[in-house]
Design goal:
By secondary structure, the chain is mainly α. It contains 15 helices and 2 strands. The chain is globular. It binds zinc ion (2 copies). It comes from Urocitellus parryii.
């Protein structure tokens, strides 16, 4: 195990851990000291944020898991959405060019709302944003409709801290289907609720914008995830209503959902583990392609405080490119 990993492992045992900037560049040699790395810093880069660091002291309780309790409303809505999206695939060739472009741009922006927003900004606090970027990300996040930022970040911090246990909302030890979408179709395991309630979410509660989104989430989602993307192609360039609905809305939404879910399923089951082979998350290039840069998942679980979520900056990582552009514009920092 590389020296910097040993350093991190030993830090799990204390709650007053100092998180240091992750080492970049070539992989560490055995025995090389973290302190000697050119990018090593004594500075604690996220003094306020510790609840996304893996806690190996938590283990599953003995005995069988409780039976699944199906949430039929979610099952029916997911089936309808995916049927609409499948029909949308058939309709793609009949769409106008601007409808393809619209659906693609909507996919990219809503993807960023998850990756640069809910994930790297709000769940992990890997960078800070000024108001215009904040507003853009909360809007983009609402376009993506994957639960509001508060709920997304709570589930995600639990996923990191209690990874691959019953307290992990999409525990990949329960199989591909469960970690992909199944977890959204059944009631949460009691351990998810119990351990989730112990997480420190005070930073999110203190953010007025996050709480504002939570308050008006349902009407906002209806408007900008469903109504707006359907009406614009139909109204502005004379696309048929069915094409607008099934391609720009259902198909685009289903693609963003599945791309995100693949990070929880495929990137926890298939791929290499060059940074920490004791955890399940893996490096998966295909997932990175779909999820705009979130497939370097063994790295990400090892160094959750890196805004790039990858050792390789812009390589298959549109989200890092986007955050770097925002930094150049002075809208993202730290
Ligand atoms: Zn994460
Ligand atoms: Zn993960």
């Amino acid at each position: 195990m590389p020296a910097h990993m040993l350093q991190l492992s030993s830090s799990y045992t204390t709650t007053t851990t100092t998180i240091r900037a992750p080492p970049k560049g070539s992989p560490q040699n055995e025995g090389e000291k973290l302190e000697n790395h050119p990018f090593y810093s004594e500075e604690d880069i996220r003094p306020e944020m510790k609840d996304d660091i893996y806690d190996p002291s938590y283990q599953d309780a003995e005995g069988p898991r409780p039976k699944f309790e199906f949430v039929w409303r979610n099952i029916i809505l997911m089936c309808l959405l995916h049927l609409g999206a499948l029909y949308g695939i058939i309709l793609v060739p009949t769409c106008k060019f601007y409808t393809w472009l619209w659906a693609y741009v909507y996919y990219l922006i809503s993807g960023l709302g998850i990756t640069a927003g809910a994930h790297r900004l709000w769940s992990h606090r890997t960078y800070k944003a000024w108001l215009p970027l904040w507003l853009f990300l909360i809007f983009a996040n609402t376009m993506a409709f994957q639960n509001d930022v508060y709920e997304w970040a709570r589930d995600h911090r639990a996923h990191h801290k209690f990874s691959e246990t019953d307290a992990d909302p999409h525990n990949s030890r329960r199989g591909f289907f469960f970690s992909h979408v199944g977890w959204l179709l059944v009631r949460k395991h009691p351990a998810v609720k119990e351990k989730g309630a112990t997480l420190n979410l005070s930073d999110l509660k203190a953010e007025k914008l996050v709480m504002f989104q939570r308050r008006y989430y349902k009407p906002a989602v209806l408007l900008i995830c469903f109504i707006l993307p359907t009406l614009v192609p139909w109204f502005y360039w004379g696309e048929t209503f069915l094409n607008s609905l099934c391609v720009a809305t259902f198909l685009r939404y289903a693609v963003v959902l599945n791309a995100t879910w693949l990070v929880n399923s495929a990137a926890h089951l298939y791929g290499y583990r060059p940074y920490d082979k004791n955890i399940n998350s893996r490096e998966n290039i295909l997932v990175s392609l779909g999820a705009v840069g979130e497939g370097f998942h063994n790295y990400h679980h090892t160094f959750p405080y890196d805004y790039s979520a990858s050792e390789y900056r812009w390589h298959i990582n549109f989200t890092t490119f986007f955050i770097d552009c925002m930094a150049v514009l002075g809208l993202a920092y730290d």
